[in-house]
Amino acid sequence: MTEDIDKLVTRAKTGDRTAFDALVRDSLPKLRGVVWRLVGHPEDCEDIVQASLIRAWENITTFGERAAFSTWVISIATRAAIDHLRGQKRWRRESQIAYANLCATDDSMQGEIAAAMMEPEFLFDAREHIAYCFVCIGRSIAPDEQAALVLRDVMEFSNREAANVLGISDSVLRHRLSAAREQMEQRYDGLCALISKTGICHQCEGLGLAAEAMGGQRTSLPDIDNLVSRIAAVRNVDPGARKDSALHDIFFRRCKRVEEEGLGSTMPVDCA
After folding, report:
1. In angstroms, rounded to a whole number, what is the distance separating the alpha carbons of residues 46 and 44?
2. Which of the two ends of the chain, N or C, has the fewest CB atoms closer than 10 A to its terminal CB?
3. In a domain, 251, yes or no
4. What range defines the domain where residue 165 resides?
5. Which pLDDT score, from 0 to 100, does residue 250 have?
């Protein structure tokens, strides 16, 4: 820890909220990035972030300074996100297909998507959609394993850092990470047309074409043929600066309802 951070921690522990806010400021983008990649749903993410900051402030005197402050506060948020996911119904692998099938026959659902795409500054960014999809698929595996994958492979924490955030040993982290990678590969196999040319979901291409048809702009599809290249694309998306945030926030809200209520067929009808 630098001397400045040491001083801020000391002040925060005496009840100086300004010092605490200064400590949090640098950690907040990464903290939000972890929570978004685990949960996705905009209101749920914000609730988790705010509750985590409150908890960190209330427990600042317990911060032992053996780990970096950023690791400590991100750990609080990550564990809160895991607890949230444990209390939610696990999403189906095909949650997006179920939603797309419902959307294909529902004028109001189609209308809200069209309205987002017709905004003057709208740009369909394929990598942002890949990041959205990664979160949705991630919600179909165990939260503990999902968190290991996000921290280690997306956020690029070291094994030791990720294990510290999760409060587990290095060996347990490696086990969860291996399980998460295997399950994610299996879930993408036969689902994503970018990874498997016979995949049933062509949503990236379909939405890009729809954006063009409505007079908007789109980015080209990246060359993705495996989980590693997909994770690399997800890593390069800043959740706090997404051009498509309005569109994908709609998707997250709708997918949550679809999964909570078990709506929609998972057989592809119109995945665009």
Report:
1. 5
2. N
3. yes
4. 95-261
5. 97
Is the model's pLDDT at 16 over the cut of 70?
Answer: yes
Rg (CA), the chain: 20
Same domain, 58 and 152: no
Burial environment of residue 156 by CB neighbours within 10 A (0 to 12, 13 to 18, 19 or more): exposed
Dihedral through CA 186, CA 189, CA 194, CA 199, nearest 10?
Answer: -150
Q: Which residue has the higher pLDDT, 68 or 41?
A: 41
| pLDDT given at position 3 | 52
Instruction: Please answer whether residues 92 and 45 qualify as being in contact, where contact means their C-beta atoms are separated by less than 8 angstroms.
Output: no
Q: Which residue has the tokens 């970018």?
A: 194
Asked, for residue 268, whether it belongs to a domain, the answer is: no
Residue 272 lies in a domain: no
Q: Locate tokens 């945030």: which residue? A: 245
Same domain (yes/no): 81, 121:
no
Quick: pLDDT tens for 84-101.
Answer: 999 999 999 999 999 999
For residues 108 and 186, membership in a common domain is answered with yes
Mark whether 75 and 103 lie in a shared domain: no
Q: Dump the DSSP string for the chain.
A: --HHHHHHHHHHHTT-HHHHHHHHHHHHHHHHHHHHHHH--HHHHHHHHHHHHHHHHHTGGG--SSS-HHHHHHHHHHHHHHHHHHTSPPPPTTHHHHHHHHHTT-HHHHHHHHHHHTSTT-EE-HHHHHHHHHHHHHTTS-HHHHHHHIIIIIS---HHHHHHHHT--HHHHHHHHHHHHHHHHHHHTTTBTTTSTT-SB-HHHHHHHHHHHTT-EEPPPP---SHHHHHHHHHT--GGG-TTHHHHHHHHHHHHHHHHHT-S-SS-S---
